Amino acid sequence: MLNSTYRIILAGLFCSWCLSPIAQSLPPYNPVTDERLQNPEESNWLMYRGSYDSHGYSTLDEINIENVEDLVPVWSFSTGLREGHQAPPIVNDGYMYVSTPQNHIIAIDARTGDMIWRYVRFLPDDLQQMHPTNRGVALYGDRVYLATVDAYLVSLDALTGDVIWEVEVEDYYNGYYMTMAPLIADGKVMVGVSGGELGIRGFVAAFDVMTGEPAWKTYTIPAPGEPGSESWPGDTWQTGGVPVWLTGSYDPEFNVTYWGTGNGGPWMGDTRPGDNLYATSTIALDASTGELKAHHQYHWNDSWDWDEVSAPLLIDYQRQGETVKGMVHPGRNGYLWFLEREENQINFVDANPYVYQDVFTTLDPVTGRPEYDMSKKPGTGFEASFCPSLWGGKDWPPAAFNPVSRLLFIPANDNVCSTMEGEEVQFRPGRPFMGRAPSENGGFFVRPGTSHIGELQAWNVDTGEKAWTTSFASQNWGPVLATAGDLVFMGGTNDRYFRAFDANNGEILWQQRTNSGITGVPVTYSLDGKQYIAVQSGWGVDAQREQNLLNLVKGENHYVPQGGVIWVFALPD
Predict the structure, then answer these.
(1) Which of 27, 66, 201, 519 is most buried per CB count within 10 Å?
(2) Which residues are catalytic?
(3) If DSSP codes are grouped into helix, strand and coil, which group holds residue 540?
(4) Can you spell out the DSSP letters for 80-104?
């Protein structure tokens, strides 16, 4: 195993080898400031979802419903790697930064596709990668920040790729790893840890953005004596999981960050009786101190692996003639949740299923707490079938929101279900701690009589009503981008297409087949007044795992090639 110092030296040498003269032809690097993060220019894409509110929306409109059919590839770049390429290309005034599986960062001239530098992290030989991917970098000042799969946070020089500092967030040997793009706010760089299937105790941690010094650390499972600890019996809190997979949202007015949390561990709720706070929840943390300000739990004592790790979209919407300072979350549990955020509280407003869901029987009209059909809740030695599947109505791929049309766009999966039974499991540090018994065809099935799985849905947030749905025979693992050109961009299907949809009705206006399936987050940016659309193609991880199960249950042999390529599109000159 390489120690961290040796890894830094090797990474620096690698970047020296691949540093390109193209960097000398680019304009001076424009440092990323707090003001720019709070008010990002439409020409750039400076963070994971483009803005702190997680809307995934751009006001650029040169590419629109009238001309998108003319869109053509202008450059591409092969990463040379396999597995799931899920990160957005992050763009700052012509400098593009793309992270990949195995924790590479590629710096590219966003005009031409020429590489400026490449950072390679040398990972330990004994590392377990249950999700071999990375979902993006963060920018601040003249630096690039990466959360690594061996649970380090790395700060690099944006112009050269040289490592400035790195800090250990946790010990990967005990099952901790990271795949998210860091969140930068209030002078901190914040990350959450994955490993909910490996017996970790989840947390969000913050570090000084310039020095890397620890600022705070907030666990997602309370210790004995802390509020919520009564919801974890005995010592189950020590190995209860509750990971934080994805980048949080941030409200500068309250100085509060909002994070989605994952499943409890082991998977079967009867091994940890209680609500298991703060699993499968949105938690609100003070950006300065890490103090837990509020939470909303979407479902208690999870037994379905329905992580609710997507950060809520911060959307103010209308209800009964009043404006609600809101949060909206398309849940993995198959319900679309409308919440209200206050400085020290999260209130339930309403929720309804957006895909077929047969577990919830009622929701408390005040708190939103669901009641269950217990025949649909698997346990130790008890088999149960439920819909949607363990991948949920929407897994990690982010939704998007157009604040002008008031439409929320959800990459959904319907008509797929799971059968699970629990078995006893013993905890061993850094080893699987799920307690799920083996089952035929992976316990995965398609609802009889249904003709499709994947969907792109549009919902009006002010009325709470669905506006339209576009369906696909394939499963859908496509993150969504919305633009002021009345367009929605999404890949995600097993036919390898990247598509543009009419945001008003869901009609497919343009499509381009790529080298692989697309699970990357699309972005848009402009240079010299010209708009570009960029996305990574590269199938793998859960999209591939679901494809394997679909091949089994449907008797098919559908093959999706792997291999990462960054694709960039624009209108012809």
Answers:
(1) 519
(2) 305
(3) coil
(4) ---S---PPPEEETTEEEEE-GGGE
